[in-house]
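Handout, section 3.2

Students often ask what a structure token actually looks like in practice. Rather than define it abstractly, here is a full record for N-acetyltransferase domain-containing protein. The first block is the sequence as you would receive it.
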Amino acid sequence: MDDIPGIQACNFLCFPEEDPRDSYYYKDRIVFWPKLFYVYQSGGILGYVVGKMVGERHGYISYLGVHPDKRKQGIARKLMTAAEKALVQEYGSEYVSLHVRRSSVAAINLFTEKLGYQIQITAAEFYDNEEDAYVMSSCII
């Protein structure tokens, strides 16, 4: 839980258009899904992934963020690999879903081209600024 202020700072850099999450949001995730909370550190927090279970076999990635200065170095892929492994081994998940901003071309490419996710539907006005999101999913077993 000592990492929460650093995660909040990284989250603000990654998603400045969103309302910031308070520390209780992260503490809740750590308490209920401790194996779905990963931080990538090297002299500070450079990235993080936050997940949860939303059904018996359904994992969900709430946040994946990498410091803007450290992108395109494989950090997001490493974080997602760790989260997916934990979803299967620790929680028995068979598939995982997440939301991605329609404007986030880099994230869409990461998930579709490198991690094998598929776009399922569009969620209209999903984000705080009313931007649409793609709902993406992947079978992870």
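Discussion prompt for tutorial groups: The longest helix spans residues 75-91. How would you have guessed this from the sequence alone?
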